[in-house]
Amino acid sequence: MANILFVKANDRPADQAVSVKMYDAFLSAYKEANPNDTVTELDLYADQIPHFGNDTITANYKLANGYELTAQEQKAAATAARYMDQFLASDKVVLAFPLWNYTAPSPMISYISYLTQAGKTFKYTENGPVGLAGDKKVVLLSARGGVYSVEPMNAIESAIRPIKAALGLCGIQAEEVVIEGHNQFQDRAADIIADGLRQAAEVAARF
Predict the structure, then answer these.
(1) Which among 148, 151, 51 is positioned nearest to 105, based on CA atoms?
(2) Are the C-beta atoms of 91 and 2 separated by less than 8 Å?
(3) Can you give the pLDDT at residue 155?
(4) CA 116 – CA 120 distance, rounded (Å)
(5) Which stretch of DSSP H or E encloses residue 98?
(6) How far is the C-alpha of 140 from the C-alpha of 160, rounded, in Å?
(7) Phi and psi at residue 138, in whole multiples of 5°?
(8) Residue 69 contacts residue 127 (beta carbons within 8 Å)
(9) What CATH number does residue 157 fall under?
(10) Rounded distance, CA 159 to CA 93, Å?
(11) Does the structure show a pLDDT above 90 at 182?
């Protein structure tokens, strides 16, 4: 048995959001292939994940150095610990999000910020940072209406690339499943989406 965490950052309904369709297809296929695994779902919009900022940074610093926390900092520290502990307890993680305006939705960016914490998921050494979470399997499910996988557009794709880099800091080599071009090529949109959902289900069955 494995613990798998599904994280979604898209609050649009499934009939309007391809990344949500991917999430649903992956989740269904994974459950069918792994009926005994423990599945946890985290909807970042429904959870109203707080923006990562000064309260959390200060709280983590004070905790690490034995300082007393204010009530607000204690709340921020508890939130940070909840996301981190849930992530660390998972053997596998699925992150589903779209590309909106050249980047990932802000809740996903905040979530990744909570996970990249020195001493927890990576550490500093004389030779640079070293990841501490390399034993985790992670897959990224993402949808984008245009085609960003070829030059010159791949240079400005800023949804998957920063998230993969942050996970790489933690020692994680994430797999990608991407659906792209369904808005750019509307005459083929149904086929593009259907092919992508089949790929998502295939990856889920072996994940």
Answers:
(1) 51
(2) yes
(3) 81
(4) 8
(5) strand 92-98
(6) 8
(7) -130, 135
(8) no
(9) 3.40.50.360
(10) 17
(11) yes
Do you find a cis peptide bond into 98, omega within 30 degrees of 0? no
pLDDT value, residue 104? 97
25 close to 201: Cβ distance less than 8 angstroms: yes
The letter for the amino acid at 124 is Y
How does pLDDT run across 126-173, given as a tens digit for each residue?
Answer: 999 999 999 999 999 999 999 999 888 888 889 999 999 999 999 999
**In the structure encoding, which two tokens stand for residue 182, read together?**
């369904």
Domain count, the chain: 1
β-bridge pairing 92-98 and 3-8: parallel
Is residue 115 a contact partner of residue 151, using CB atoms and an 8 Å limit? no
What is the residue range of 139's domain? 3-206
Contact 159, 124 (CB under 8 A): no
Inter-CA distances, 96 with 34, 77, 104, Å: 19, 25, 10
Pairing of strands 122-125, 128-131: antiparallel
| Cβ–Cβ under 8 Å, residues 4 and 27 | no
CB 92 within 8 A of CB 31: no
**Quick one: average pLDDT of 71-92?**
97
Alpha-carbon torsion 69, 70, 71, 75, what sign? Answer: negative
Locate tokens 């695994």: which residue? 37
pLDDT in tens, 22-78: 999 999 999 999 999 999 999 999 999 999 999 999 999 999 999 999 999 999 999
The answer to whether the pTM exceeds 0.90 is yes
